[in-house]
Design brief:
The protein is of the alpha+beta class. Helices cover about 40% and strands about 20% of the residues. The protein is built from 13 helices and 13 strands. The strands form three sheets. Strands 8, 9, 10, 11, 12 and 13 form a six-stranded antiparallel β-sheet that branches. Strands 4-7-5-6 form a four-stranded antiparallel β-sheet. The longest helix has 18 residues. The termini are far apart. The C terminus is likely disordered.
Length: about 325
């Protein structure tokens, strides 16, 4: 009996990152076609369930950014339907997507992180910005970063230099969700390390250093060709590169992720500081995971194909799911 080579690439959706998702989806679809797969491109809409039912033994490759694409909701539906897919499961995706939850978990695991506070919209509204500014300034200090707890592509993020700019930055973050993260701003070199697992265990790809010409790696810098210079492998000492790789692998493990992830970090004085982890990394021409693949010994088409086959093999074998290693009150229970 022949094994199906049908793959449904899911892209688009209704998040603020729809356009980026569509670009990522087109690139993944072409890569899989180049490797001999029969690819169906689909959006998340009322016809999706019909599409899933009409394709024989498909594997889904979700390339959805933000919202339902990364918060685990769609992956829960795929599990409910028994459709195998590339990437982390619903619960792990939900934890990783929420910076108010994922950052404390990786901190507990021994990863260096900027000091941060999670500020719910209701609390901000009831207590008033003026009453919180002094407390945030004392705990976090200026400059600081303000960003939504559950968003990607730097949407709703702002660097705040002084108390006067904090209220408007928080309001801007609230336009993308009901919790804002106020975090210590760490000056250093921005680096991203992707992790790939095609069945032989998680492997860290070469680090990518990010040098935006504007000085800020915002939405425009991320997705405009020529707006940012990327160096991969990142020019750094071997011990620093190893520390960055170890951080990405640890985050992947303690958050219970699988198949692929990308950890963003800042390196200051040779020490990497965790910023966030992404379970649905961008796959566009200017995205970091494809750049890391190009710096390795593999090709983008090969990696996409191997991820699909790993998902199909996992489904056939009924492999147990990893689980986030949630912190407990007992330090002796901390992950090693």
């Amino acid at each position: 009996m022949s094994v199906s080579n049908n793959v449904i690439v899911l892209a688009g959706g209704l998040s603020h990152e729809r356009d980026v998702s569509l670009r990522s989806g087109r690139r993944v679809a072409q890569a899989l076609r180049d490797s001999g797969h029969n690819v169906i491109e689909a959006d998340v809409n009322a016809t999706l369930l019909e599409t899933l039912a009409s394709v024989e033994d498909p594997v889904v490759f979700p390339v959805l950014h933000g919202g339902a694409g990364e918060d685990g909701a769609l992956r829960e539906v795929l599990d409910l339907l028994g459709v195998p897919y590339v990437g982390s499961n619903g619960p792990a995706s939900r934890v990783a997507f929420d910076k108010a939850v994922s950052t404390p978990i990786v901190t507990y695991a021994g990863i260096a992180t900027p000091a941060q506070s999670a500020l719910p919209h209701g609390m901000f509204r009831e207590l008033g910005a003026a009453n919180l500014v002094d407390a945030l300034a004392a705990k976090i200090g200026f400059p600081m970063m303000v960003k939504p707890a559950r968003s990607g592509s730097a949407l709703g993020s702002a660097k705040v230099e002084d108390a006067a700019g904090l209220p408007s930055a928080v309001v801007g973050a609230f336009s993308y969700g009901d919790i804002a993260i106020v975090a210590e701003f760490i000056e250093g070199t921005e680096v991203a390390v992707s992790v790939i697992d095609t069945g032989d265990g998680p492997q860290a790809l070469p680090a990518v250093e990010i040098r935006p010409s504007s000085g800020v790696y915002d939405y425009t810098a991320r997705y405009t060709a020529g707006a940012t210079r990327f160096l991969s492998p990142a020019p750094m000492d071997a011990d620093v590169a190893a520390a960055c790789a170890e951080m990405a692998l640890t985050a992947h493990r303690v958050l219970g992720l699988r198949d692929l992830s990308r950890t963003d970090m800042i390196v200051r004085d040779g020490v990497p500081y965790f910023l966030e982890v992404n379970v649905a990394p961008g796959m566009t021409e200017t995205s970091l995971l494809p750049l890391a693949i190009e710096a390795s010994s593999a090709t983008f088409s090969e990696v996409c194909a191997r991820l699909v086959e790993a998902a199909r093999t996992r489904a056939a074998a009924g492999v147990a799911e990893p689980a986030p290693q949630i912190a407990t009150d007992d330090p002796e229970d901390a992950p090693a």
